[in-house]
Amino acid sequence: MDIQLKRGLLEVCVLAAIADEDSYGYKIIKDMKPYIELSESTLYTILKRLETADMLSVRTAEHEGRLRKYYHITRAGRKRIEEFKSDWTEMLSIYRFVTKEDESHVKDNISCGP
Amino acid sequence: MDIQLKRGLLEVCVLAAIADEDSYGYKIIKDMKPYIELSESTLYTILKRLETADMLSVRTAEHEGRLRKYYHITRAGRKRIEEFKSDWTEMLSIYRFVTKEDESHVKDNISCGP
DNA sequence: TGCCATACCTCGCGTTACGATGTATTACGC
DNA sequence: GCGTAATACATCGTAACGCGAGGTATGGCA
């Protein structure tokens, strides 16, 4: 998949990976892998960025002698996901522009969005 | 709209803007405006990039005393658009991951893609 | 004459993904 | 016991990219 296309998705995917329950770096990568792959260096950069933006909070806990940093999504983080959903509508419109799909009959379709 | 999300779309949108008929910088911006906005500096960077990648060819022509550079999409350019369409399938899968949409019933939907 | 629209272009900056690299512990095969 | 893989974290430098700021030039209109 095109790297540039990934850029807008990575951040929100990380948030989605911790939305249901708190998670930690290594697990986030594994959970995301079937959908979108990212390197560890990228993830930790993103996690730090999201923490600075108050979209997640961090809690360090010990698990079988090894320390783990659990990430918890905040209200701002959930808001970010909602914003992504709005952006998706725009994305669809752009997709149609690129594929020259006729927009007039689109309303007859079951939308791909919310 | 999120800047990062735009990144993967800009290039392919420019190609789409010249796919039906040859066009020039100023017109491309205007045609794209209803769907996605980009500055002149961004466009000319993209046009140069696409030219280097042989996804479009350039022809200079005079129009009412003013010179215009007309851009023409190449076979590689059209291939790029096709690749974008394939990527879209992946995008949809990622979208569902983020929105926690159940994928099991998706096949019952009329897809948003090709 | 001044100003806006048209039409092109360049430079520098900030953001971002990622490979390379490093540290440390547990688990498992040989 | 020892090497290797998996787990788990982190940093640094690089390259790509969008964009604001700025530049050049012509045509049309008030």
Helix content of chain A: 40-55%
Radius of gyration over C-alpha positions of chain A, nearest whole angstrom: 17 Å
Sheet with the most strands: spatial strand order of chain A: 1-3-2
Overall geometry of chain A comes to elongated
> Total number of β-strand segments of chain A?
3
The greatest interface between two protein chains, and residues involved on each side, is: A-B, 39 and 40 residues
Largest sheet of chain A: 3 strands, antiparallel
Q: Quickly give the structural class of chain A.
A: alpha+beta
Q: Cα distance, first to last residue of chain A?
A: 24 Å
The fraction of residues assigned to DSSP E strands of chain A is 15-25%
Number of helices of chain A: 4
Query: Uncertain spans of chain A, ≥5 residues at pLDDT below 50?
Result: 106-114
**Could you report the average pLDDT of chain A, rounded to the nearest whole number?**
90
Order of helices and strands of chain A: HEHHEEH
What would your notes on this structure say?
The structure is a homodimer of 114-residue chains. With 114 residues, chain A is of the alpha+beta class. Chain A is built from 4 helices and 3 strands; from the N terminus they run H-E-H-H-E-E-H. Chain A has helices at 3-17, 25-32, 40-52, 75-99; strands spanning 23-24, 56-63, 66-73. In chain A, strand 2 and strand 3 (66-73) form a beta hairpin. The longest helix of chain A is centred in the C-terminal third of the chain and has 25 residues, at 75-99. The two termini of chain A are 24 Å apart. Chain A binds chain B through residues 1-2, 4-9, 11-13, 15-16, 19-20, 32, 35-36, 81, 83-85, 87-88, 90-95, 97-100, 109-112, 114, and chain B through 1-2, 4-9, 11-13, 15-16, 19-20, 32, 35-36, 81, 83-85, 87-88, 90-95, 97-100, 109-114. The first copy, chain A, binds a DNA duplex (30 and 30 nucleotides) through residues 3-4, 6-7, 10, 24-26, 38-42, 44-46, 48-49, 63-69.
